[in-house]
Structures are given as structure tokens and as C-alpha cells.
Specification:
By secondary structure, the chain is an alpha/beta fold. Helices cover 32% and strands 30% of the residues. The protein is elongated.
């Protein structure tokens, strides 16, 4: 695979050095270079970029500020970032930015390659996950048989002593399965389901309405448990910002 890169540094010599390192690395593809973070931002907003080699201390817009702008974009995947900086590691630790790595100037090609390989592994892992077939069902033990249940039909799962009640769309009675709510939580994908109470796991697709402390699932309104509120509020905040 080829990782599409841009390099941003206001120092011409440092910019050229990193560009040469990129061109020397077989799995990297240099698409553009900029001496201004503002120019880089305009490019990123119009072109696909996988990886950004980014200096921190620049005029007008610093590398850290650019990183925060990219993190704050909605509905658009942001490029991964490797900082190339003269800041020492102690100064860098004061910033809260999700970067793949920090290269402290002056750095060697070996150090550059190590950071780039970290990016390669992450892209390869993401690509492998995308190729994996999505399993849209589970099997549950119901009485003396295994019953196939489609995830999209699950409204909520309710803990009931040593069993769980699985409430399904279009079914008047829930399935009673010999398993624990914790086992169900591990089995269900967290992008589609959320535990909101010690006794309930809900399907995010089947939510009817929400408040800061309750969630209406149509068949029942559940009060969010104290231990689950922080996670639930993070979910709500995505829609009210």
C-alpha cells in the first residue's frame, strides 16, 4: 500500500529534508509540501491525505493548532499526524493531541523510518478490519437449542437472574437465554449497543428519545444508572453540539 503524505514546515531546509526522507521510503507517497499550516489546511480540506508530517512552531497557525482544527472537523476523517519538532519531549507532553509520534529535530532517517512504520502498521490494521466481513447476527441458547438472532432486530437486553431477556422487534414476548448480561455486553458490538444500567443493554438504532437521565426505547423508558452516565452523556453530546 501507498500512504499519501504531505509535509509542513516553515524552515525550508527542514522541509526539504523530510520530503527527501518521504521520497526515499517505498510505502510513502509525497503529494504536497507547504511552508504554511494555513495552506496545508486548505489542501487537506480539498484533497485526501493519509499522513501529515507537521512542524509545531510556525507563524499564523502552529502545528498544534492545525492538529486541533483537524480533530474538530465533523464527518471527515482526519489524517494521522507525526510531529517533526525542535520542542523537547517535556514540552510536548503538555499538549493533548492525538499524534502517532513525535520526531525531535535533528532526527535521522532511521528515526523517521521507525515513526513511519508505526503509521504503516496502523493503516494496515485499519485496512484489514475493513475487509473483515461484518457479522450481523448472534446465536443464543434458548431452552435446548441455539437460536439465530439478527442484531438489527434486538431492541434491548434485560438482565434476569441467571438469564437475559432479549426483546426483539415485532415479537410480543422476549427470548429467555441462559447467559449473563456481561457476556451479552462482550458479544454485542459497542458501535450498535450500549449498557446504560446494571440490568439493561440497549440498541442505539432503536432509541426513540433521550434525556440526560433517561432513554425511551418505545417498549420501556430506562433510567440511566450512575455508573453508566458518563459514557451515555458522551453519546448524547455528539448530537447536541
Amino acid at each position: 500500500m501507498k500512504i499519501r503524505c504531505i509535509v509542513v514546515d516553515d524552515e525550508p531546509l527542514a522541509l526539504e529534508m523530510v520530503c527527501k526522507f518521504v521520497e526515499k521510503t517505498a510505502f510513502l507517497q509525497l503529494d504536497a509540501k507547504f511552508e504554511s499550516a494555513l495552506e496545508a489546511l486548505a489542501y487537506i480540506n480539498s484533497q485526501p491525505v493519509d499522513l501529515l508530517f507537521l512542524d509545531i512552531q510556525m507563524p499564523d497557525l502552529t502545528g498544534m493548532e492545525l492538529a486541533r482544527v483537524l480533530e474538530g472537523r465533523k464527518g471527515t476523517a482526519s489524517p494521522k499526524i507525526i510531529f517533526t519538532t525542535a520542542y523537547n519531549q517535556f514540552a510536548i507532553e503538555g499538549y493533548k493531541v492525538d499524534a502517532l509520534d513525535y520526531l525531535l529535530k535533528p532526527f535521522s532517517y532511521e528515526e523517521f523510518l521507525t515513526a513511519s512504520q508505526k503509521a504503516l502498521r496502523q493503516f494496515e490494521n485499519s485496512q484489514a478490519m475493513e475487509k473483515e466481513p461484518v457479522q450481523d447476527y448472534i446465536f443464543l441458547k434458548v431452552e435446548y437449542q441455539l437460536v439465530k438472532v439478527k442484531l438489527k432486530e434486538i431492541i434491548l437486553v434485560e438482565g434476569y437472574k441467571d438469564y437475559v431477556k432479549v426483546h426483539l422487534e415485532g415479537k410480543s414476548a422476549p427470548l429467555l437465554s441462559l447467559t449473563t448480561l456481561k457476556s451479552m455486553e462482550e458479544m454485542l458490538p459497542d458501535k450498535q449497543f450500549m449498557r446504560v444500567h446494571r440490568s439493561y443493554i440497549i440498541s442505539l438504532d432503536h432509541i426513540q428519545s433521550i434525556s440526560k437521565s433517561t432513554v425511551n426505547m418505545g417498549i420501556i423508558t430506562i433510567t440511566v444508572g450512575e455508573g453508566y452516565k458518563e459514557n451515555f452523556l458522551q453519546f448524547i453530546n455528539k448530537w447536541i453540539q
